[in-house]
Amino acid sequence: MNEAIGIRDVSKVFGQGDTTFTAVARVNISIRENEFFTLLGPSGCGKTTLLRMIAGFEFPTDGEILLHGENIADMPPFRRPINTVFQNYALFPHMTVADNIGFGLRMLGKSKAEVSERVIEMLRLVKMEPMAGRRTSEISGGQQQRVALARALAPQPKVLLLDEPLSALDYKLRKEMQLELKRMQHETGITFIFVTHDQEEALTMSDRIAVMSKGQVLQVGSPRDIYDAPADRFVAEFIGETNFLTGRVRKIAEETAEVMLEGGAAISATAAGVGVGDDVTIVVRPEHAEVVAVPATGSAVTKGTLENVVYFGTDTHFHVRLPDGSVFVTRQQNRPRLSSEFAVGSEVSIAVAADAARILRAGA
Amino acid sequence: MSQSAIRADYRRTLTRRWLLSSPALLIVLLAATGPLLVVLLYSFLKAGPYGGVLPEFSPEAWIGVVMQRGLFDDTLSIADAHLAIFWRSIRLSLETTLLTLIFGFPTAYFIATRPPNTRELWLFLITIPFWTNLLIRTFAILQIIRNDGTINTVLLKLGLIGEPIRMLYTDGAILAGMVYVYLPLMVLPLYASMEKLDFRIVEAGYDLYATPFRVLRLVIIPLVKPGIVAGCILVFIPSLGAYVTPNVLGGGKNLMIGNLIELQFGQGRNWPLGSALSISLMAVVMAALIVYVRNADKTGGHHG
Ligand SMILES: Nc1ncnc2c1ncn2[C@@H]1O[C@H](COP(=O)(O)OP(=O)(O)OP(=O)(O)O)[C@@H](O)[C@H]1O
Ligand SMILES: [Mg+2]
C-alpha cells in the first residue's frame, strides 16, 4: 500500500539556550493511504506536537514530513491538503453552521453552486441538515463536534487530523461518535490520523497504533500486535491491565522458553531473542489467568492470598497478593448460577492459559 | 406566603435597593447633568459685554453657530469659518482614528501573541507616555518637528534637503500629535479583545486554506470587532474635543472645535456662542456614537 504521510527522523525542540525541551525525539512513522492511524500515549508525550507539525502549525526542528513522497515540512498550513478537527472544535463563532462547513471550499475558490452542493452533502453526512442556519453557539457539544468534522472533511483533504476529538463528549455520545468516525473514514476513504490518550478508544477504532512516551514512538502495530505482543514494559502497562512475573530462562525449545519463576514454579512462555540463563520479565494479561483451588492442577504457576474480589457485571476481578509482595490480577467471566467459591483471605493458586505468557524483549 | 405576596415583598425589596443607591444617583445627576443644564441655559441668553451673560433670552448664539451677520448690515450668511472648523475637526478626528487603528492593530496583535508573562511588560511600555503631562508631550513633538527641530537638523546635516521642511503649524502636525497622544487608547481595548481571542480559531482558518490576509479579514477582524469599535470611540471622541494639541502644534491658526470654544469664553467674550458650540459638539459625538452602536449591534451582536 502507498504511503500517505511519512515522518522521517522528526524532532521538535521548544525553547532556546539552556531551557530547551524536546517534545518529539527522532520519530519515524509511515502512515498508509486510507488508514485509520492512532497516536496513543499519556498526557504530555508529544502527540499534539507531532500532529501540529503534520498540520503545519509547528515546524520540525529536524527531519522530514512527507505527503505522498513530497517533503512538506516547511509548507505553510494553508497550502497543505490536510485538515484538522481541533480538540475544542474551534468553530468560527461569527458564522452559521453552513458557513463554517463551506469555509474551506470558499477559500479554495470553488464556485457558489459547488460550495452549497457540497455543504448540503456534508450536512447530510453528519446528520445536521436541520441546523444549517444556526449559529455555532446555538448547538450542543456533540453537534459542534459533527460540524467540526464536516468542516474538515468538506474540502476533501488527503489526510484528516483529529486531536482528541471525542474527549469532551460524555460516555454514550463518545461511543456513538467512535462508530460514526469509523463509518465516515470508510465512506470517504480519507487517511485519518487520530490522537487519543484513551487506550480502549485506540484499540477499538484503529487500523494501526503508534504508542508514544516522552516524545518517542515505542511501538507501531495493529491493535492486536500491541495488545498481545507489547514491545516493552511501558506499552504493556499502558495498554490494558498487565501482570508482570520475573524469572530465569531454563530451557528453550523453538519459540517457547521454559522460565523458572522466583516463586519456584515453572512456566512456558513465547519468546524471541532470549538465551538460557537470562533474567526475564513475563507478561500475563488478567483474562488469560485464573484463580484455582490450592491443591493446584498442572497449569498453576504461583500461589498467593486472595485479597479482593471485585464484581464488574460481565466479569469478576480477583486480586491476589503474591509472596514477593506484588499483586496479580485475574479476570474471569461470570456465568449464570456460578458464584465465587473463594473467600477473601484464603490461599489460592493462579493458573495461566497455555501460550498466554509472553516474555518481553530482552532489555525492555 | 402566597405567590403574589412573595412577589409584592420582592418588589418592595427592589424599591428599597433603589433607595440605597439614591445618594450616588443624586451625585451623578447633579455632577453630570447640572453643568450641562447651565451650559444649555447660557446658550439661550445674551452675551455680556465683558464676558458672562445677561439674563435675557436670545437665540443669537444658536444662529451664530452656523450663520454670521454681515459687518455693516444685518444680513445673515453661512458662517464659513465655523463650518470649516467643524469640518476640520471631524476630518482630523476621523484621520486620527484611522491612523491609530492602523498603527494600533498590529501593536495590539503583537502584544497579544507574546508569551503571557511578557505581555504585562509590553502593556506597561505602551502606557508610559500617559505618565507625562499632555502639554509636555506635545511640546516634545513640537521640538522634533519645528523648522530648527530634530528632524530638519538631521536631514539638513545629511544634505538630503536644502532648506527646512515646514511641518509645524500644519494639519499634518496636529494629526501626528493626536495620533501619538491617543494611540494607547486604541491599543488597550484592541489588546483586551485580542487577548480573549482563541488562537485555535485563527489556526482553523489557516488550516482551511485561508491565506494570512484572508484570515485577518475573515476571522480575526470579525472576532475582535468589539475591541475595534471601543478603540475607535475612545479615540474619536477626545480627538473631536482636542484642545492642547491643535493649540500648540496648529499654532492657533489651524483651529479645531475645542479651540474655537475656548476662544468664545476668552478673547471672544461670547459665552452664549461658546455654550451653543459645546452643545453642538456633544450632538456630533452623540450622533457618531449612535451610528457606531447601531452598526456593532447589527454585525457583532451574536458573539458569545
Ligand atoms: N509551544 C510550546 N513551548 C514549549 N513547550 C511546549 C510547547 N508545546 C508543547 N510543549 C511541551 O511539549 C510536551 C508535549 O506536548 P503535547 O501537547 O504534544 O502533549 P500531548 O501528548 O498532546 O499531551 P495531552 O494528551 O495532554 O494533550 C509537553 O511537555 C508540553 O509542555
Ligand atoms: Mg494534546
UniProtKB/TrEMBL annotation, chain B:
<keyword id="KW-0813">Transport</keyword>
<keyword id="KW-0812">Transmembrane</keyword>
<comment type="similarity">
    <text>Belongs to the binding-protein-dependent transport system permease family. CysTW subfamily.</text>
</comment>
<feature type="domain" description="ABC transmembrane type-1">
    <location>
        <begin position="86"/>
        <end position="292"/>
    </location>
</feature>
<feature type="transmembrane region" description="Helical">
    <location>
        <begin position="121"/>
        <end position="145"/>
    </location>
</feature>
<dbReference type="InterPro" id="IPR035906">
    <property type="entry name" value="MetI-like_sf"/>
</dbReference>
<keyword id="KW-1133">Transmembrane helix</keyword>
<feature type="transmembrane region" description="Helical">
    <location>
        <begin position="273"/>
        <end position="293"/>
    </location>
</feature>
<keyword id="KW-1003">Cell membrane</keyword>
<feature type="transmembrane region" description="Helical">
    <location>
        <begin position="173"/>
        <end position="194"/>
    </location>
</feature>
<keyword id="KW-0472">Membrane</keyword>
<feature type="transmembrane region" description="Helical">
    <location>
        <begin position="215"/>
        <end position="237"/>
    </location>
</feature>
<dbReference type="GO" id="GO:0005886">
    <property type="term" value="C:plasma membrane"/>
</dbReference>
<protein>
    <submittedName>
        <fullName>ABC transporter permease</fullName>
    </submittedName>
</protein>
<feature type="transmembrane region" description="Helical">
    <location>
        <begin position="20"/>
        <end position="45"/>
    </location>
</feature>
<dbReference type="InterPro" id="IPR000515">
    <property type="entry name" value="MetI-like"/>
</dbReference>
<dbReference type="GO" id="GO:0055085">
    <property type="term" value="P:transmembrane transport"/>
</dbReference>
<feature type="transmembrane region" description="Helical">
    <location>
        <begin position="92"/>
        <end position="112"/>
    </location>
</feature>
